[in-house]
Amino acid sequence: MFLFKKVYVPALQTMFSFVEIQHRIAAKAGMIIQRVVLNSRPGKNGVPVAENFRLEQSAIADTIQAGQVRVRTLYLSVDPYMRCRMNEDTGSDYLLPWQLSEVADGGGIGIVEESKHDNLARGDFVISFSWPWQTVAILDGSLLQKLVPQLVNGHLSYFLGAAGITGLTALLGIKEKGHVAVGANQTMVVSGAAGACGSLAGQIGRLEGCSRVVGIAGTDEKCSILVQEMGFDAAINYKKGDVAEQLRKLCPGGVDVYFDNVGGDISDTVISQMNRNSHIILCGQISQYNKDVPYPPPLPPDIEKIRKERNITRERFLVLNYMDKQEASVLQLCQWIQEGKLKVRETMVEGLENVGAAFQSMMNGGNIGKQIVLVSK
Q1: What angle do CA 67, 132, 70 make, to 5 degrees?
Q2: Would residue 12 count as lying in a domain?
Q3: From the CB of residue 300, how many other CB atoms can be counted at a distance below 10 Å?
Q4: Residue 254 — pLDDT band, cuts 50, 70, 90?
Q5: What domain count does the chain have?
Q6: What does the pLDDT read at residue 289?
Q7: Neighbours of 127 (CB within 10 A)
Q8: What angle do CA 235, 236, 238 make, to 5 degrees?
Q9: How confident is the model at residue 211 (pLDDT cuts 50, 70, 90)?
């Protein structure tokens, strides 16, 4: 919370708080809104904190132009890849860095309050993956996609996760890089298994034909949810005991498919127990995001030797390369959700002012499933 000193205005013989003065100035410019901007960069090797973001008051125009819509923000998605956007150089040719003191953006869902776009009307729910982190925004209607809430049983936020890019990443990663086949008796291991993508990947691996699915997570609660709610055969708490030993017991026939969300020591342990001609789905490397290393990070020499000797595939996976399969894949995800075959978990944080804290918590593994910020109802 910010505290402001009172400012005395002699000509009016009254006192206004700084906030009140700013409100009056902004009101002349248009509609008052709140937004979240990048306040500081953590540095390539730094750990992001809530204070890297700043909530501030701003204003948008009172009127919209042809082709535009005014939307009220409902939900914002907070994702690990955003850590790269906090750096001046994202290390990627498809991700732009956030600029200091400029509004941050990412996946978002809102409701149209006013429209001058032919295909959108007041009351429509819309989504964008470059949604500004602010309470109200004026957007180009042609860049928005209209949503059908019935596809996800009314859970709109699912379009940011299980029925959105997160679900697509899990499904297409397994299909395109996992080479899962019904009847092949394959064992899949998922690291970061209680996260947004991992929790879906394990379930999808089973639906696509894996005979055994084992998750790796960081708490007993997460492991319990994976097994009891999401149908994993077993789960390993990597903070307890010997991961390699537990993996050998739970995957006696070795590992055929590895959905890698974390990288680092955990991934090295899994790879060392993978079978010949097996496959790594390189989804994320969250353990490496606070380090100045290339993506994907190189494996240690001994692990890379194992990978080559056993002909284990490890290719960079980018869901944007498979957008021709988006529509059919989203419909498949929605069908599984409607049928109850794909269980969805979300960690919901309320209030735009808490988006920085939500980001920090997510990067520290504090979420179960997708991290969502509820901005308004």
Answers
A1: 35
A2: no
A3: 12
A4: very high
A5: 2
A6: 42
A7: 20
A8: 150
A9: very high
Domain with 45 in it: what CATH number?
3.90.180.10
**Same-domain check for residues 193 and 110:** no
Closest residue by Cα to residue 162 from 199, 207, 215:
199
253 within domain boundaries: yes
Instruction: Give the CATH number of the domain where residue 240 resides.
Output: 3.40.50.720
Strand order in the sheet with 212-217: 234-237, 212-217, 187-191, 255-260, 274-282, 313-316
pLDDT at 30: 81
**Hey, is 214 helix, strand or coil?**
strand
**How many Cα atoms are found within 13 Å in the side-chain-facing hemisphere of 119?**
9
106: in domain: yes
Is 293 in the same domain as 150? no
Measured N-to-C along each axis, helices 301-309 and 264-271 cross at an angle, to the nearest 10 degrees, of 30
Is 194 found in the same domain as 296?
Answer: yes
User: Cα(204)–Cα(346) distance, rounded to whole angstroms?
Assistant: 17
Spatial neighbors of 66 by CB under 8 A, at least 6 apart, are 116
Please identify which residue in the block is written with the tokens 């498919």: 257
Query: Whole-angstrom Cα distance, residue 226 to residue 91?
Result: 33
Residue 294's pLDDT is what?
A: 55
Residues 78 and 151 in one domain: yes
Domain holding 81, by residue range, is 33-161+346-374
Q: Is the pLDDT of residue 5 over 50?
A: no
Residue 243 contacts residue 267 (beta carbons within 8 Å): no
In a domain, 300, yes or no: yes
d(CA 55, CA 207): 42
pLDDT (mean) for 20-32:
55
Burial class (CB in 10 A: 0-12, 13-18, 19+), 139: buried
Q: Do 38 and 59 have their domain in common?
A: yes
